Amino acid sequence: MDRDAIVSPHSLGALEAYRQVIFDISRVLQDPAVDMGKLFYAVMIQSGVKRFRVPDNYINKLSGSGLLSDRIDTISFGKIEGTLRELHDRIHCQVLRPPTDAERRVIDELVYFLHDLYVAANFRRPVVTVVEVPNLTLLRPILREDLCAVVEALLGAVQTLAVDAPVARFEVAAEKLKSFQAVMLSDLFESYVEGHAELALTYGPTEPVIEKVGKVAHKIVDVFPGDLELRKTTVSAIEALPTLIEAAVGKLFGAVAKPLLSALAQGLTQDRRLLMYSFHPTWRQIWGAKLDKVREVVSLERKLRSPHKDSS
User: Fold this and answer.
1) Which pTM was predicted?
2) How much is the mean pLDDT over the chain?
3) pLDDT tens digit sequence for 82-121
4) Is 72 helix (H, G, I), strand (E, B) or coil?
5) Residue ranges of the domains in the chain?
């Protein structure tokens, strides 16, 4: 089964920032640096995505990884770029006061989440992203109440699924990654991909599908117990819009409401869910590990610099 997903421009930009940050902090720590771009695609492939579609102006910026050979296609954002810009502007117009840098990042997370949802609906394909589901608690103090009500209704319709994935261990040597190609081409992995494809169908509840996918993931890890491990990947699924959305979006979003609602109506058919696969849990784990090491180094330096008390 050919199963492809879209990588949006903001995720590609964030991955480059992640790559540079991890490279810089790893150099300071004299620690091995993880290539965040390659890891992103590896995690998504091992989460059931077979091919990636990127904006045509980004195709030449991707690393020449063998992992991506014959797995990349282009897709044109030309017809929706105006809607994405307008959506960004409309959200920022609903801010109650000048936001702090931290608050601006939270607002941008909401914008990017809505971008990804619109892209998934417009192209009727899953999206792979670096963002997580927005935190409404952080948004309430800085956004208008009526917008928060719409966001709350929308997020209430999003089902966050934790799915087992057979993901490469972070410490595995690069040359060993080539052996995973055999797993990805196997019938066992194909059944894993097909299981993920069933998540997009609304013929039944998601729980049995997640259980089925998890069992296959366990079998794949058993094949490579030293190189692969089970990790939870986060999938956001939405299959229907609350009635509040259609009534309120027009008032809040103005001209952008029509293409947004039209895309969602077409993307959310009676038999399909919209899916967004998030890389954020993996990023959080890697960044957290680096910060833990920084704390260890700082603590050790403080101990070395502190004067020894004379024993009396």
Assistant:
1) 0.83
2) 82
3) 889 988 988 988 899 999 998 999 999 999 999 999 999 8
4) strand
5) 4-165+231-302
The pLDDT of residue 312 is above 50:
no
Pairing status of strand 72-75 against strand 158-168: unpaired
Which of 2, 22, 39, 3 minimizes the C-alpha distance to 180?
A: 39
- Burial string for 129-151 (b: 16+ CB within 10 Å, else e) reads bbbbbbeeebbeebbeeebbebb
Q: At a CB cut-off of 8 Å and minimum separation 6, what does 130 contact?
A: 10, 11, 14, 15, 18, 40, 278, 279, 280, 283
**What stretches of 127-256 show up as alpha helix (H) in DSSP?**
136-139, 145-156, 180-184, 187-199, 206-223, 243-253
DSSP character for 175? G
Q: What are phi and psi of 201, to 5 degrees?
A: -95, 140
Across the beta sheet with 158-168, the strand order is: 72-75, 51-55, 4-7, 127-129, 274-278, 228-238, 158-168
In sequence order, the 6+-apart residues with CB closer than 8 A to the CB of 25 are 31, 290, 294
CA distances from 275 to 75, 124, 203 (A): 18, 9, 15
Higher pLDDT, residue 186 or 64: 186
Answer yes or no: is pLDDT of 173 > 70: no
SS3 228: strand
Beta-ladder partners of 275:
237
Q: Quick one: what percent of the chain has pLDDT higher than 90?
A: 18
Instruction: Return d(Cα 94, Cα 253) in angstroms, integer.
Output: 10
Would strands 228-238 and 51-55 be described as parallel, antiparallel, or unpaired? unpaired
What is the C-alpha separation between 107 and 101, in angstroms, rounded? Answer: 10
Phi, psi of 243 (to 5 degrees): -65, -25
